[in-house]
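Box 3.1 A note on notation
Throughout this textbook, protein chains are presented in two layers. The first layer is the amino acid sequence; the second is a token string describing backbone geometry. Keep the layers aligned when reading.
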Amino acid sequence: MKKTLITALLTAIAAQGTAQADDGTATTGYAFLMLATTSGMKTTMAVEGLEITVNGSQLVAANNVERRTFSLSDLATMQFTNETVATAIDAATMPDDDEGVDVFSLSGMALGHYTSIDDCRDKLTPGVYVVRQAGKTTKIQLR
């Protein structure tokens, strides 16, 4: 019963976000689908190539770029939008000073403040990191 209700809801949401183009193909007036969990986490996915399926107690959303799985019991809302939500990296609190290098994990967790890029390279394990130096944020890969 729950699966049928969720499938009907997804169909209604998809119908609301789509329109018919002149050539007969489906188009959307929105660029993203935003999914919010009961914990407050919000995720956006590009609508282009988006397919949503229900597999048991999981909602699977996949497009041309990514595939994400959500527990149906954890989903609070789904809506089409033209705006992306801030990622953990966007929302991370950055120190005010421009001296040194601030390093973050890809999930946005602050890992430390270092005097230079070379200093953080010497102290961090191999991986991909987000660094902020002199007001500029970039990704680096340490090998």
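The longest strand covers residues 75-81. The two ends are 51 Å apart (CA to CA).
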